[in-house]
Amino acid sequence: MDKYNQKPRGVNYMEKSYRPKSYDFYNMMENQAFTGPMFLGKDLEYVEQGYVITEDNKIIDCGEGKISGAKKHSIIPAFINAHTHVGDHFMREKCLGMTLESACAKRGIKENYMSAASEYTIVVGMKAAICEMLRTGTCCFTDFREGGIHGINLLKKVLMDFRYRGMRAKIFGRPLYHGENFIDDCDGYGMRSIRAEKINMRLGRTLGIHVCESKPGELEKALEFKPDFLVHMNSATPEELKKAASLNMPIIICPRSNAYFSLSQPDIPAMLNEGISLSLGTDNAMTNTASMPSEMEYAYRTNMKNVSAKEILKMATINPAKLFNWNCGIIEKGKDANLILLDEHFLKTPDPYATTVLRLQAQKSQMMFGGKFAHYY
Asked: Where are the domains of the chain?
């Protein structure tokens, strides 16, 4: 692993000259107007001819109809990645063929690599993962961050490079050692599993926990921690899904990650039938690209006989926005101007929702985050 710890001499990775250069952001004008087919409002209603007007970083008007002088595009809300581990991006393909336990358990391969890697190596990987999200239309993400206070602060420093580019994140930390008081430095606690340390004082912070990822029967123990949301539940029993539904417990699913480790796939139809609010996440950057279009496509292709594409799209927009209180994921007056702008004919198909989740990642698009265009080069 020595090669992962090599840092170019004389380079400060936090200096402006060393920031990612795969894109830049610019304002074209204070007010911008777009018209064309779009998904509008809280239910992602498809409107064949709609309009959006933005000012600074907000949507100031939108609705059905056409306005003169507006740029013609197909318009969809930018995505929210509900569950990531961007810190392990530098470990890409290091866990091929391994079981989940070998790769991610305490004192597993991931923990060994993370403890041996230099700060520089981890930071460069984090930036690369965030760039993947920006390139594929994600404006916000929620990260389960390892490494205690130091790990939390490392991601905060990285995010400073992306702050003016419109990217936002919520960090769910975990203690590096027993008793570490990290909770005031982040947005919540991201528990590794039901075997993790219990926090004595939540102090109003949000708590998420990995549950039933590799085996069933963990929900009852997890509920003792009084979580605000669950991650995975792909191996949960029907009874456990009913219990989660009775508690109105949101679940974040990561189908590609489960497939990588040859685990059971989440029973999306059963979860939806129980009335559970589902969000999508790309999980570990070491196993998957941080691409929400890829996650949506996989989730839909493996469930398309029983789940609508519209429901899949909600899992990347409206649902995580509500779960984490983001002011985006919806094209609505007063929301942040986080939009994906495509060719005006892209959504003009018999099923524009299916077109979006199946074909978006292959399309040339413009990203608007916080009212600013992302320009790639």
From this structure: 1-7+21-377
